[in-house]
Amino acid sequence: MDKVALSPHNPRIKDAKVIVYDSTLRDGEQTPGVAFSREQKIEIARLLDEARVHQIEASFPAVSENEARTLKELCSLGLDADILALSRVMKSDIDAAVDAGVDLVLLFVGTSDIHLKYKMKKTREEVMAMTVDALDYCRSRGVPASVSAEDTTRTDLDFLMEFYRTAEQNGAARVGVTDTLGCATPEAIAAIVERARKEVKVPLGLHLHNDFGLALANAFAGVKAGAAAVTTTVNGMGERAGNVPLEQFATGLKYLYGLDIGIDCTKMMGLSETVCRHSGLHKARNHPLVGSNVFAHESGIHVAAMLNCPLTYESIPPESVGNERHIIMGKKTGVNYVKKRLEDMKVQASDEEAAEICRRVKELGERNGRVGDQEFKDIVDQVIVKA
pLDDT under 50 in the chain at which residues? Predict the structure, then answer.
């Protein structure tokens, strides 16, 4: 029997090479109130590397001297993943990244009119010149650079294309589409990527926020349109509503779109739990794929079917993302599962006794929400009187 049971109507993404550059240690840490220690960053970086994440955006080293020191240590770990660092189009920022030993500098600069006027306080021409100078400086320091247009999705499209062309002409290894406020739709992301692919030959990256809950959908739309790199974070943590969740993006590409990008999805649960512990952030029980409820079942109809074939109510097995299946006993428990539990306990019971046990389980479940193992055993002992 197949190990997964997915819709045959899902489109397939063929022959695409997609790089994940995970930003848990940078944008993820920009979640208000989160500050990873040096040891925590090293542990998370190692876990990302073990999961075969291609690139790790490890830091914004201009933040502090301690941040720069930690970045340098991360660069010296000998990980298979490339180590990236964020940088403004400023020599001091670039120096902080290059001196730490990064493999790629992630340059960013605001390009929307609102950013130019109120944040950058620069003209389009001035920002373009600053970007060219920054690329020249990265080249002089011997490290490749990508260039992202901050607030891409509110940037004038013609100017955006001119910005990308200029970046490419001046040596950018990649150009980035940044939905800084998470306010674009999948159709908008696809349109920008399609237009950019006609204008430049260098790969396009996506950095997408989740303010409208569309980051994951936008990532898929961008990849289908030809984007070659996507920023993720574990559990989707990050500024405001966060970013594209690593576990959902990698697993979704593999199982929904038929595109295995080489990431070990079985490591996702361990990564998720570690990041929760170190960040102090708690994920919802129904968090997709790595939540405690995702492979938990109580409904008698569902459980009865799953006892015959788990694929009836699980499109992928829980171990494919490192999660576990849980059958919960409560008010919706059916007699078939009661009989299965009795069989596992090697307890013989008549149909009438099994029905009575099920009735009491439901009754206790209505009062307490769920019935634990010991409570179930107590009910069994009460109903089945041993000779």
Answer: 1-2, 387
Q: DSSP for 297-332?
A: E--HHHHHHHHH-GGGT-SS-GGGGT---EEPBSTT
Let me know how many helices (H) and strands (E) the chain has, helices first. Answer: 14, 10
Percent of the chain scoring above 90 in pLDDT: 85
Residues facing residue 104 across a β-bridge = 84
pLDDT digits (tens, 9 = 90+) for 130-187: 999 999 999 999 999 999 999 999 999 999 999 999 999 999 999 999 999 999 999 9
Q: How many CA atoms lie within 13 A of 383 on its CB side?
A: 23
Report if residue 288 sits inside a domain: no
Entry pTM? 0.93
229-232 and 204-208 beta bridge pairing? parallel
- Identify the pLDDT of residue 386: 62
**Do 376 and 327 share a domain, yes or no?**
yes
Question: Of the candidates 318, 328, 324, which has an alpha carbon nearest to the alpha carbon of residue 373?
Answer: 328
Q: Are 10 and 323 in contact (CB under 8 A)?
A: no
| Boundary (domain end) residue, out of 245, 279, 313 | 279
Task: Tell which residue, 150, 135, 297, has the closest CA to residue 209.
Answer: 150
Q: Are 344 and 337 in contact (CB under 8 A)?
A: no
Helix crossing, 373-383 with 351-368: angle to 10°? 140
The span from the CA of 256 to the CA of 248, in Å, is 10
The C-alpha atoms of residue 207 and residue 314 are separated, in whole angstroms, by 31
3-state secondary structure (DSSP) of residue 18: coil
CA distances from 138 to 88, 279, 315 (A): 12, 33, 46
- The domain tally of the chain equals 2
